UniProtKB/TrEMBL annotation:
InterPro entries: Acylphosphatase, Acylphosphatase-like_dom, Acylphosphatase-like_dom_sf, Acylphosphatase_CS. This is acylphosphatase. It comes from Halogeometricum borinquense (strain ATCC 700274 / DSM 11551 / JCM 10706 / KCTC 4070 / PR3). It comes from the Archaea. It catalyses: an acyl phosphate + H2O = a carboxylate + phosphate + H(+). The active site is at R22, N40. Its EC number is 3.6.1.7. Coiled coil: none annotated. SUPFAM superfamilies: Acylphosphatase/BLUF domain-like (SSF54975).
């Protein structure tokens, strides 16, 4: 792993469930060679982990502010963590 690898733990609030937000996040992450996962939370938010190059992770965080076409994002909270070696990008249930 390169030294510029970073990990962001992200919580997205707003109308982000039932609007293809998870599938769009997966596609956007894969297009940027990001590894990690995305899932819906019981409280209506979407939670995601992005691991990859610093630039790619920052692009994904920025992408989350808009998300899928039908989403209405109110806020994006980000916590940075040490990379844990995620492999691939998946939707968790």
């Amino acid at each position: 792993m390169s030294d510029d690898r970073t990990r962001a733990h992200v919580f997205v609030s707003g109308r982000v469930q039932g609007v293809y937000y998870r599938a769009s996040t997966r596609d956007a992450a894969r297009n940027r060679d990001i590894e990690g996962w995305v899932k819906n939370l019981d409280d209506g938010r979407v939670e995601a982990v992005f691991e990859g190059s610093e630039n790619a992770v920052e692009e994904m965080i920025e992408w989350c502010h808009t998300g899928s076409e039908a989403a209405d994002v109110e806020s994006v909270e980000v916590e940075y963590e040490a990379p844990k070696g995620e492999s691939g990008f998946r939707i968790e249930w």
